[in-house]
Design brief:
40% of the residues lie in helices and 15% in strands. By secondary structure, the chain is of the alpha/beta class. Strand 6 (205-206) and strand 7 form a beta hairpin. The radius of gyration is 21 Å and the shape is globular. It binds (3S,4R)-3-hydroxy-2-oxopiperidin-4-yl beta-D-xylopyranoside. (3S,4R)-3-hydroxy-2-oxopiperidin-4-yl beta-D-xylopyranoside binds at residues 96-97, 141, 192, 282, 323, 374, 378.
């Protein structure tokens, strides 16, 4: 069981048998003549996510790319339906790339807040909460090349990137960015993907010879694992109120090498009194991993995901769903009804787990239309990962989320 669970790492979530059996997360009738049409074409045909989620104490969020939104110099793509959908349905936005270090500090000490200032102003005008993604992340899509270049130079000793130097770079970045949006940002992913699964990835630094461990990023290699604590402390010093989050992928299940390592590391931070408000669970979910599962396996996974939320909550931490999407294999054909139904079940059940958790204040998807999804590029051969298609037509997953919210409100 341990092995099969580990093999499913990254699978993350499962549908509840109850809901599957009773059709709970599926639309009652999703046929065109059932009166369920494109929500943009028929505003008011259903209640927006944010209005269903608010009485349940949840923010309903999505990743956005501000180029599609009408904000000053940022706006490059005319897509009024995208913006209408966003403003109607959501109460939280997470700009997918704009806050990454390589965009905010493209050269050393030279910060560029042009886009992020506009994002914050826009969000305030539109009464949207903002989740800041991300302060410190070792991935090449985030860490600026002027930092990695320095590491290469270190061997020439001309401009060595000492621990003290990188620490100062890190703390200055965190302090500058968090201070700028103090009192305005709801939550920050202070650190992203600092852990890795040595069974799946290269470059992991495995501590104590155990499975699971830290990533091989420049932050970990040069500063050491304490970079996480130090980044959190710098963030707290810069804004005493903002929610500080450690964001991670592949930690949804309990009892896998990575999730156990992650839990014990986070518990260590809490025990030590490090400022931390919660963890973010990304949830980029491959639907194909669910297809072969039988009922018992699904139940076990479901319970395992719920147990993950519970055990972090018991530490006094929030658990945020930060980047949910459910991607399908792209074989050059449209998804089958079965695939879309499975996708809907997974979306619905991840939301339900959040709603049932003691502390899951925000449910955020990594985009709401396949038109702009990162999956085809980020995970080649896959796609169809969001709740509306390329034309922004709602898929079964859209209705599953609505139905899940409705059920939680009415208690059935
Ligand atoms: C992705 C963006 O959506 C893409 O536009 C970009 O090219 C690469 O990064 N986990 C994360 C996010 O924490 O930052 C990633 O976002 C998706 C995976």
């Amino acid at each position: 069981m341990h092995k099969s669970k580990a093999a499913l790492l990254g699978v993350l979530a499962v549908s509840s048998l109850c809901c599957l059996a009773c059709g709970g997360t599926q639309p009652a009738d999703n046929t065109p003549d059932a009166g369920v049409s494109h929500p943009d074409a028929a505003p008011g045909s259903d209640v927006p996510f944010k209005e269903l989620a608010a009485p349940l104490g949840r923010l309903f969020g999505t990743q956005i790319d501000p180029v599609h939104l009408t904000m000053g110099s940022v706006h490059t793509t005319d897509d009024a339906p995208y913006e209408r959908f966003l403003l109607r349905e959501f109460s939280l936005i997470a700009p997918g790339n704009n806050f990454k270090m390589r965009h905010l500090q493209p050269t050393e000490g030279d910060f560029n807040f042009d886009v992020t200032d506009q994002v914050m102003n826009y969000a305030e005008q539109k009464a949207l909460a903002v989740h800041g993604h991300v302060l410190i992340w070792g991935n090449e899509t985030s860490v600026p090349s002027w930092i990695t270049d320095k590491e290469e130079e270190a061997s020439n000793a001309d401009y060595p990137l000492s621990r003290a130097k990188l620490l100062s770079i890190m703390e200055q970045h965190v302090t500058t960015v968090v201070s700028r949006y103090k009192g305005r940002m709801r939550s920050w992913d202070v650190v992203n993907e600092a852990f890795c699964d040595p069974q799946k990835e290269s470059g992991c630094i495995v501590e104590g010879g155990e499975a699971g461990g830290m990533d091989g990023s420049i932050w970990r290699r040069i500063i050491g694992p304490e970079f996480i604590e130090l980044a959190l402390r710098a963030a707290r010093a810069a804004d005493p109120e903002v929610k500080l989050i450690v964001n991670e992928n592949g930690v949804e299940l309990t009892d896998t090498p990575k999730s156990e390592k992650f839990f014990s590391f986070i518990k260590g931070l809490v025990d030590k009194g490090v400022p931390l408000d919660g963890i973010g669970i990304q949830m980029h979910i491959p639907a194909a991993h669910f297809a072969p599962l039988d009922a018992d396996q699904r139940r076990a996974l479901y319970e395992s995901v719920g147990a993950t939320f519970a055990r972090f909550n018991q530490l006094g931490l929030d658990v945020l769903i930060t980047e949910l999407d459910v991607f399908l294999v792209d074989e050059g054909r449209a998804p089958t009804a079965e695939e879309l139904t499975l996708q809907a079940e997974i979306f619905g059940n991840m939301l339900r787990i959040c709603l049932e958790a003691a502390r899951c204040p925000s449910f955020t998807m990594w985009g709401f239309t396949d038109k702009y999804s990162w999956i085809p590029e980020g995970k080649p051969g896959h796609g169809f990962a969001t709740i509306t298609d390329d034309e922004m037509q709602p898929k079964p997953a859209y209705f599953a989320l609505k139905e899940t919210l409705r059920q939680m409100q009415t208690g059935r």
